[in-house]
Amino acid sequence: MAYFRPPGPPPDPALVRSLTAQQHDMRQRVRAEPLAQEPRLIGGCDSSFPTPETILSVFVVLKFPSLELVEKVYSYAPVTMPYVPGFLSFREADNVVQAFAKLENQPDVIMVDGHGIAHPRRVGIAAHLGVLLDVPTFGVAKQKLTGSFTEPGPEKGNITPLIDAKTGELIGQVIRSKDKVLPLFVSPGHRCDQATATRLTLACLRGYKLPEPTRLADYWAEEFKKEVR
User: Fold this and answer.
1) What is the pLDDT of residues 169-218, one digit of tens each?
2) Which residues are annotated as a binding site?
3) Which amino acids are annotated as binding site for Mg(2+), given as ranges?
4) What is the pLDDT of residue 5?
5) CB-based contact 128:99 (threshold 8 Å)
6) In order of start, what are the domains of the chain with their CATH numbers?
């Protein structure tokens, strides 16, 4: 997800406590499990902030494994949540759900531009969204949020684990998606496991750094911004 990070005063402590409690509740509901069957349709979603006051959330749906584009939708709305570090998913989730509601073809699994459980409290936007929608989700992020890792080899397909330094827990995998480009950080969200998240990410690569579901969501976000300006 492309976040707008405005400067400003420290967040309200009461708001932080409320968001922390909500994340704790969602964390208890997150389930790691393989998909019941191979997906027929895979979704991709991304959010961006065309202005400090607005958010644009995009969903694309592709056939799997051909990755033929089936559908694309967006939701554009005012931002209702202030910027609070560590709780960025709350700025996006409602609008992403609004975009999802516009889909005529519901995906069997959703690839989210952002983190799943590779988050300090294990509830990044992919996990957050999965719990809200009760749909299998996983995250593919361009930057690390938490954890430690060894740089994967420079060739496409090299993978290393992303580990919680305090607990030793596997919270994601670091994937070289294209030769000699910065790696991606892949983690399960809800109703998905790491093996599935990694396998689907690799299956959706088509010569770009980003896998097709999130790459096309990002592409169409730029196109849809022309409609809302």
Assistant:
1) 999 999 999 999 999 999 999 999 999 999 999 999 999 999 999 999 99
2) 46, 113
3) 46, 113
4) 54
5) no
6) 13-228 (3.30.2170.10)
